[in-house]
């Protein structure tokens, strides 16, 4: 799964309707350019591709404030909403997602109901436990990694990663069940995007040909 696809859909969805530079600005505000492939080129490409796929609806509006051709604003279509929620659910459930995909899902999980997020994270723990059990079919932790020479360190790493991932997920579930955060259906939705003209303290300032303010 592409973290950019999930992030871009999430940003546009929070705005309701947004142009490419706004989406880029939001992802930089979230720090996604540091922990994902959230570079300007990838963001603008994702917007255009998802518009072609019918996940986003593109609107041509007035020319940008810096001149040039009309600016394009995007909004999530019904298909795009289905895709977004499917990607978000998959990212929270799967144990083998890349860190950037899981990070994106954590930043957007409040778009789902609290009970559903708890249930999805429970599935994630179950998947981790199945993976751990499959490693134990070949690797005996009591004998240590040396049983397979240095290659055993790979399986030792897998086990420790599985244990750490499961422990972290249980902690997150406990926090959510205790009432942390505000999820879908629990009042005004969380707004994590920048308003029009709002200064982004984390902007990179890097110019890209796709920027049209």
Please state how the strands of the largest beta sheet are arranged side by side.
1-3-2
Q: What's the total number of strands? A: 4
Question: Whole-number average pLDDT?
Answer: 89
Report low-confidence residues grouped into runs of 5 or more. none
SSE pattern, N- to C-terminal? HEHHHEEHHHEH
Structural class: mainly alpha
Distance between the termini: 29 Å
Count of alpha and pi helical runs: 8
Percent range of helical residues: 40-55%
Morphology: elongated
Plain-language structure description:
It is a single chain. By secondary structure, the protein is mainly alpha-helical. It is built from eight helices and four strands. It has helices spanning 3-15, 20-29, 32-35, 40-52, 78-93, 99-108, 114-136, 152-177; strands spanning 18-19, 56-63, 70-76, 147-150. It has a three-stranded antiparallel beta sheet with strand order 1-3-2. It is elongated, with a radius of gyration of 20 Å. It starts with a helix and ends in a 36-residue tail after the last helix.
């Amino acid at each position: 799964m592409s973290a950019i696809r999930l992030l871009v859909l999430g940003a546009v969805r929070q705005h309701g309707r947004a142009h490419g530079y706004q989406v880029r600005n939001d992802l930089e505000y979230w720090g996604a350019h540091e922990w994902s492939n959230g570079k300007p080129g990838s963001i603008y490409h994702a917007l255009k591709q998802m518009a072609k796929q019918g996940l986003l609806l593109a609107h041509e509006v007035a020319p940008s404030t810096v001149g040039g051709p009309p600016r394009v604003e995007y909004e999530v279509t019904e298909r795009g909403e289905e895709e977004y929620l499917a990607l978000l659910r998959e990212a929270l459930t799967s144990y083998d997602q890349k860190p950037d995909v899981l990070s994106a899902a954590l930043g957007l999980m409040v778009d789902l109901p609290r009970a559903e997020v708890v249930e999805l994270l429970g599935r994630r723990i179950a998947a981790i436990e199945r993976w751990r059990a499959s490693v134990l079919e070949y690797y005996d932790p009591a004998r240590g990694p040396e049983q397979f020479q240095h290659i055993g360190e790979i399986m030792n790493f897998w086990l420790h990663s599985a244990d750490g991932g499961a422990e972290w997920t249980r902690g997150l579930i406990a926090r959510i069940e205790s009432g942390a955060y505000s999820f879908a259906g629990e009042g005004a939705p969380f707004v994590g995007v920048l308003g029009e003209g709002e200064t982004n303290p984390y902007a990179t300032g890097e110019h890209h040909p796709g920027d049209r303010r």
